[in-house]
Amino acid sequence: MALRSVNLPGVGTKYEFSTDKGDTIALFFTKTGTIQMYTLQGGCHTPSAAEMTPMEARRLGNILTGAIIEAESESVEIAFSAIADLRITIHTYTIKKNIAGKTIEDLQIRTKTGVTVIAVSRKDRNIINPPPSFVFEEGDAVVVIGETDQLKKFEQDVMVD
Amino acid sequence: MEGIVLALFVCLVLALVTKYLSIPPIPFYIIGGVLLGQSGLSLVTSSELSHFFSQMGLIFLLFFMGLELKLERVAANRSAVLTSGVIDLNINMLIGFIAAYMFGFTLVESLVIASAFYISSTAMAITSLIENRKLMLREAETVIWLMMFEDLVLIIFLAIISAGDQNPFIFLLKIAGVLAFLYAIAHYGKEFLISILDRSDELPILFTFGAVLTTASFSMYIGVPETMMVIALGAALATTDPDAFEQHARPFKDVFLVVFFVFFGITMNLSAGVDFFMIGAISLLAIASKLISGILTGIFIHGSPLSGIEIWGNTIARGEFSIALAALFGSPAAATIIAAMVVVTSIIGAFTSKYSVRMRRWIAAPSGHRGRHRRGH
């Protein structure tokens, strides 16, 4: 897989590489700020293209590097290669009606599941490290950190109460 | 003043409509100008101010072109750029010149028409490649380099035609002097220039505007073509931080260039009458000659005449540089024919660039297999 990059005058930067199976992928960072991705199946003559905003391109990049993104929530897993077996997952959830009005303490999130709520985004405001007395509201986006198993427990015990 | 405001307002509406329909706005600015101006409703007349604005538009267009010139990249790609460039230049210049001369234009007028006939619109070609998602096609790179070659030819043409009856030796010496000066500033003042561009106050934008205007007026003062020197300024400054300069010059270019196009239409003199036969003939030839040069380029560079169809579809549109040549050197009759050619070719070019892939498949498929090939990918 050789990556080729060219700077095309007036257009922007082009990155192109061929996969082992003979398909070609080309990416263009255009001067208009959009990113175009082309894929050309080996043996085919017409590429298909998708145009993305920088935000969408970053999202695609996250998916390709292995993070899981679901419809409403997304998660990023960080693996520290220097510390053996340390894998931390950061996951986002949206608060539903069933736990709205309760505090972090009421739900006993850390004692029951082991995960920690590290941030809450409410409308346009972000609360970092919310205190145990923090009251959830419906529609809050919460960012939770923990191990994959702990997160699974959190989903089963707290979110689906 | 009210005239400029009215013209700009009309352009704003035209820009909104053309962007919505994703068609090139330049022909509509010109048509809008003709309708507003002396050949239409006579609502707007040109003034000293509009003339100044138009000139700014032209100068910033050329400065931008200079920023995009990547001479070292052309040199690296020499053989491919040269082959396609020389085919394009010879065929289109020749056909354009013969056609104009046969229609009774003088030698100089024919030369101006031939150059406008030759030079495709870089802006429209590149926009079409991006908007129609064709960047990955191997012909796309050929088209991009072709546009660059045409820009280089334009610079040489500007030098030749501006030299006039000056002593060529002194003229060249002056040009070389200014060029050396510009490149020396860019080379030795690089750090200083970048430190100015990095600031977040009004300084970078003021500097960009000032540098372009100073270069233009200084060139006029010592009698070298300001158009060429502004391009050279762009090329010299591109060795420092071209993206920053583009960012700071873009607002000036965007606004003044629209004024330039609309006032080109407003000041167009159609009193001599419009020869629709001649407009039709030149426009058709303009499309046909790019087809010939496109197919030849396709054969020589990509080994396939079908690639030529793709190149043709994206280079039919004549635009900003043709109008610039008409504004700088064209007599009223030559300017009218060039403007008409730009309007016709850019509108047709918008369609050919959109449907070139389909045309190509249609031509490539033997008639019996067309149905099956249509769902190619």
Describe the structure.
- The complex is a heterodimer of chains A (161) and B (377).
- Chain A is an alpha+beta fold and 161 residues long.
- Chain A has 4 helices and 10 strands, in the order βββββαββααβββα.
- Chain A has a 5-stranded antiparallel beta sheet. Chain A has a 5-stranded antiparallel beta sheet with strand order 6-7-10-8-9.
- The radius of gyration of chain A is 21 Å and the shape is elongated.
- The N and C termini of chain A lie far apart (49 Å).
- Classes of the chains: A alpha+beta (161), B mainly alpha (377).
List keywords for this structure.
heterodimer, A: 161 residues, alpha+beta, Alpha-Beta Plaits, five-stranded antiparallel β-sheet, B: 377 residues, mainly alpha, Na+/H+ antiporter like fold, 80% helix, globular, disordered C terminus
Question: How many domains, in number, for the residues of chain A?
Answer: 2
Order of helices and strands of chain B: HHHHHHHHHHHHHHHHHH
Task: Specify Rg of chain A, calculated over alpha carbons.
Answer: 21 Å
DSSP E strands of chain A, number: 10
User: Do you know the CATH architecture of chain B?
Assistant: Up-down Bundle
Helical segment tally of chain A? Answer: 4
CATH architecture of the largest domain in chain A: 2-Layer Sandwich
The major pleated sheet of chain A works out as: 5 strands, antiparallel
Q: Number of helix segments of chain B?
A: 18
| Elements of chain A, N to C (H/E) | EEEEEHEEHHEEEH
Assign the structural class of chain A, choosing from mainly alpha, mainly beta, alpha/beta, alpha+beta, or little secondary structure.
alpha+beta
CATH topology of the largest domain in chain A: Alpha-Beta Plaits
Radius of gyration of chain B: 21 Å
Find the structural class of chain B using helix and strand composition: mainly alpha
